[in-house]
User: Fold this.
Amino acid sequence: MSLFQLHKPFEPSGDQPGAIEKLVQGLGKPSTLLGVTGSGKTFTIANVIAQQNKPVIVLSPNKTLAGQLYEEFSLFFPNNKVCYFVSYYDYYQPESYLPAQDIYIPKETKINDEIERLRVDAAASIMQRKDVIVIASISCIYSLGNPEDFKNMAIYLAVGAAYTRKELILKLLSILYDRNEVNKRFGTFQVYGNSIEVLVPYQKKRKLRIELFGDVIESILWLDSLNNQVVQSVDQEVIFPAKNFVTTAEKKERAITLIKKDLEKYVASMENKMYADRLQQRVLYDIEMLEQTGTCPGVENYSVYFDERKPGTPPFCLFDFFKEDEFLLIVDESHIAIPQMGAMYKGDQARKKSLIDFGFRLPSAADNRPLQFSESERFLKNVIYVSATPGRYELEKSAQIVEQIIRPTGLLDPIIDVHPRQGQIQNLINQIQHTAQQGFRTLVTVLTKKMAEELAFYLQEQQIKVCYLHCDLKTPQRTELLQKLRLGVFDCLVGVNLLREGLDLPEVAFVAVMDADIEGFLRDKRSLIQIIGRAARNTESLVRFYADKMTESMEFALHETMRRRMLQDAYNQEHGIIPQTVLREVTTSISTLAADIAKGSKVLQKQLKKELKLSEKERLEKIIDLEQRMQLAAQNLDFELAIVLRSEWQKLQK
Assistant:
């Protein structure tokens, strides 16, 4: 019997059956799934996962796509464990030093409690079961705690085992659970006489009660977190640490001894006395904090000592929680993710170098780092790269390239035409208006944020319902704007590079590419193919390049799109398929995962206390509802009602 139970809302169709068969046959070696936008790549991968028996890591280039994949795989595998592992910072300002300005910037972070819980949940699940799918961002290659310590420091309980109350409390404290009788959050425990209740991070709706009779465990019960009803009685249970980073008291003492030795040796070798004094003062303070409290600011910079690694050796990361070659790795949007894996180490070392050179950190700080790409490559064996535009690395390393060109919906790649720059704005306005009259939406992609803003303002002056989208807008704001576009609050969206991967907008029938003939990152072959893909979910779709000359990238995009259209059209004619626009309900609220993460944000919690007593989910739904009612009131010339609705809308937006 398969380890993974796939819930199939529909059967594979188009190119999916062939792609699934080839990918399953190629397991154990690198493969690339080259699937066009809208061809159902995620469903194909879900079918491959269901036909193998190893745990899975799905790598995503960013948190937004990771969240989408988490939701999709949770629906495909409701009876298996799907985990979410991304960077847990709401805000992150890394420690750095700018020598030219002589400015030291201390590390400043705000950790999201819910994402931290989900990270521990992922680590504990990997230790306990094999039917695990971990959706992770590229940050998972960054230094993480030693998996052996995480496993060995777990508390193994059994009914009838000898445990004193004090011994159990001390053990819980040693694996970073806090005793807190008031704020009963995940990672805390409460003591009631001879009963101890533990809120483990990897059980969201249940808590563990351990009942003692004298110095013996009498019962182990799982309770419902809300109503305290007994859900399950067990004979044995394991309590994993409350954090990913844990270590033993013996290792801590050895680490402190090594830090002192390295400090003495390195200070003696430093030529600049001011830098030496600075380093000695900072490290001695850290040592004192470690001795007194067990931690210190920037404790991760001493991870090489706690992990007992040799300098220069790879740090532990999420991959190390699995046995090597004992998991299937899926790299989604690999053309972005693979370059990220190579760049993370270089960026980290560039920042650490000045901290070490100018006496802010010991050289050991450089070993708290992401994996180098060469170190990551040892995990890229049983791997499937997924992309509509694979990069050179994936194409060279893959044993097979599996194409998925035919869409289950029968949709063809969009028609592309080229329009000269002269008169381009008026042509754009006419096409946006024509598209809006048909009940569809427009995406316009430009080269800079400034151009996006200026073009959006100009279009607004021409009575077009438009907004702009770029990297200065936070993820929730971007999600909200896309929802409004789909609902018809806006007819047009202007953006830069954010109109590429991961946008699923069936209502979009026109995509305009401004300055298409300016070769560069935003207008190379891969970028143009990705942009064209945004119009691949609508039968009326059209893509227009505004350009005065034909570049190599444009020519490639035109020829490749035409090749795909011919294959798709031939398949449709052979099987009697009539292309149909994708129909997908507009979700007017953020997902359950996004809502939970929003609740875990300490920044957001402070803001919500000052606002109306609405959840983030309810607030977004209310905002969208008010905007639709405002527009309707204005169209009916009921301006008094529109003003009242606008006032309420403004309160919710603040």
